[in-house]
User: What shape does this take?
Amino acid sequence: MNSNDNKVIKIAIDAMGGDFAPLNEVIGGLNALKNKPYLEVIFVGDETQIKKTISEQGYSGKNYSILHASQVVTMKDDPAVAIKTKKDSSLYKGIDLVKSGSADGFISAGNTGAVMSTSTILLGRIKGVGRPTIGTFMPTVKDRPSLLLDVGASVDQKSRFLYEYAIMGAIYAEQILGINNPKVGLLSVGEEASKGTEEVKLANKILQESELNFIGNVEGRDILAGTSDIVVCDGFTGNVILKFAESFLTVLKSKIKDFSERGIFNKLKVALMVPTLKLILKDFDYQTYGGVPLLGVNGNIIIGHGKSSPIAIENMINRAIEMTQKDLTNKLFEALNK
Amino acid sequence: MNSNDNKVIKIAIDAMGGDFAPLNEVIGGLNALKNKPYLEVIFVGDETQIKKTISEQGYSGKNYSILHASQVVTMKDDPAVAIKTKKDSSLYKGIDLVKSGSADGFISAGNTGAVMSTSTILLGRIKGVGRPTIGTFMPTVKDRPSLLLDVGASVDQKSRFLYEYAIMGAIYAEQILGINNPKVGLLSVGEEASKGTEEVKLANKILQESELNFIGNVEGRDILAGTSDIVVCDGFTGNVILKFAESFLTVLKSKIKDFSERGIFNKLKVALMVPTLKLILKDFDYQTYGGVPLLGVNGNIIIGHGKSSPIAIENMINRAIEMTQKDLTNKLFEALNK
Assistant: This one.
């Protein structure tokens, strides 16, 4: 047990981010408060809507507050524009609470790019970090997902950034996911250290010489195989893989629908199959993992999918609490400035 | 009908490439000969084994020949080493037949890297080609697959190469796949022309100005959605996606097996589900497309999966025939040297 476990922890919630805001955000936030006397949540967003939603849930506790914000950053907003024109948004004001020390962490199921860029600008990068990074949890055939990063913070494939992602991913996996000595793999086009671009080859060399549990290059097929706990790649490749992976279930559903529409027997076959298939594929539901950390900024930020359920929101809050309790930002600083 | 359709066409087959060589290669080759009086196949490899396999098939036709080769390039061979030390291999001698004009095309289910590098060195690049390319067919929700290229010829992301891949992919799709005015998409991290690396942004500009039916940037999710007929990317990204995609069915099988082993009812549910699922996922079987062209070398080369079935081998031969009949190499030369 960490000595900080009893300290009051304040987590700000972007109550207006996400496709089902503020409902899922409010339910998830209130659920997170249960059995956590040390927790306070700050709902940031339209006060009237938030109050109404809380009231509808019949919640009577006092361990939350509301910070009114008149604007909303939508999924379609350009992050660079939003940061200038929407300073009274729930997203901006929530991150600002972390900056001022009024909150220990911030979670959002809103516009990922806007959370990333606003956090980087308001909170600043941890010393030693060239590029903050955001990853994604990938389901594997093993009993836990792997963390693929970067998936979009920086499209440039630079060995220095790849090295930073590896360090930050490993510290997160060890501290927050509880993985002892996590295996780090570098994504490339072959297992041999000689395979890949010049930057990847250089990153391989740097990682070999690091204190990380570096297992060498891994390939596309290793991601779902769970060969390593951390899969390091540039944000261009990571983003393409993430969107490609997310499209699998959509395609599968579409193929099943097409098949089902070709006759009554097919419809019956599909009806018999789908419940089983859903059970089998539940690990492929991105909701399960409830958000990913933005690593490398001075603050505890968790970003979730726009479709985040109340459970996903609650999980995101729990992650932000753990990041606070474990003093993750400081641990990242130490690891990057040895 | 092309005026060349009645000309004798000779296709060399790497009878020793592939995991089931020479059996699948021989069956596929003999099947391809049926109803094609203009076709001659040349089986390249161990004469004794090939003769025995042909005899076992009870084939009595005369429209084939055997070129003995004493060596075999294995899947594990380093292409750079193989080209120097295995000049009496079926792979090397088969490509050499194309070089000398003794064959119009060559197909192999063997070591992809070795076929690529040996072809590039022996046959040379088409004028105007900086990097020959190999693609892969990706299943889509539409009625035809998309062609993703490059998937491994060159790991460097250069706008000039991306442009060449686009041209070669489009010509192949139009001439061989019969797609009129194929849509070309450039893989990036967002639809906007401003998204991606500097090289991708530059490629977007070059492609906008080209005569191709360029639809702009596409994202990871567009590959299986079939948004474009051709998906252009660097070989690093393409290789990672290909291996990631190929691993999906493996993972699905593994998850189904795990589920099935948890109790008799689960076993029953799986037994009921699997036949339907197989039908639905048949497009995801990479065998269907039977090999991909190596584009940009002076010769008609088709490379197939190591596990190629006899049908896949036959399809590969048919593709090589079409490339010959359509004079594809010359069409690529013209398109690249306008």
Observations:
- Residues 23 and 52 of chain A are 10 Å apart (CA to CA).
- The two ends of chain A are 26 Å apart (CA to CA).
- Chain A has a mean pLDDT of 93.
